[in-house]
Amino acid sequence: MNFLSHFYFDRRSDSCYHILGTVLPDLLKNADKTIILHPEKLHHTNDAVNAIITGWNKHLLVDRYFHSSEFFLHHSHQLKKVLLPAMAGSPVKPFFLGHIAIELLLDNLLLTTNKITVEGFYDHLNGCETQVINEFLTFAGLNDTARFFKFYEEFKKSRYLSTYTETHQIAYALKRICMRVWKDPFTPGHEAAINQVLVRYRESLSDNFMSVFNEIEDKIKAA
């Protein structure tokens, strides 16, 4: 799941560090894909650091349930099929696009149906002290944290996730993600065609997209 979908499950939490932990694995991957941390079983004397670890473990749990769900398996496959004509000639792998597209559409739907607010998400991130985050990262084994913090500060400043409320921006968000792997993933023509597909597909999801969130919440309660 993407940032805002992870936030949905803990939207009522009063711990900014727990919220940060629920999205930190993806933030680190975006900052530097070579960073690999496994803090899952660590325990720190600082409760705030432990809250990040708890959030991190929640992220892994939610992703595991999501990626094994019938909803994800079905819709990522369907999106791959309907996007194929729109991305003809693109170097992007169709299965990759289908995977990322369903995650972005879910973020968009959460925002546009007022299940969460992007302001609430960023307020939590802005409430976290850099010193505590750095303490977690070094405790987890990351010796050089400068590259992460450079990305993280820009991530907060740009408030890029606000654009997810605009359905026509989803194709651009997809392109940005693909650019981490492929230098020139889409032409303007690709982008326009992909956006048309995504707008139509979003409408088909609007009535039942919450089913996957409800399913995951039930599994978390039962775990």
Architecture overview:
With 223 residues, the chain is mainly α. It is 67% helix and 0% strand. It is built from 11 helices and no strands. The chain has helices spanning 3-9, 16-31, 47-67, 70-83, 94-112, 118-126, 130-139, 146-158, 170-178, 188-205, 210-222. The protein is globular and about 55 Å long. 34% of the residues are buried. The model has no long low-confidence stretch (mean pLDDT 95).
- Total helices: the number is 11
Task: Report the biggest beta sheet as strand number plus sense, adding barrel if it closes.
Answer: none
Mean of residue pLDDT values: 95
* Alpha-beta content class: mainly alpha
Gap from first CA to last CA = 19 Å
Radius of gyration: 18 Å
Please report the total strand number as a whole number.
0
Low-confidence stretches: none
Shape: globular
Quote the beta fraction: under 5%
Helix content: 55-70%
Q: What is the element string, with H for helices and E for strands?
A: HHHHHHHHHHH
Oligomer: single chain
List the helices and strands and how they pair.
Layout: H1 3-9, H2 16-31, H3 47-67, H4 70-83, H5 94-112, H6 118-126, H7 130-139, H8 146-158, H9 170-178, H10 188-205, H11 210-222
Helix pairs in contact: 1-5, 2-3, 2-6, 2-8, 3-7, 3-11, 4-5, 5-9, 9-10
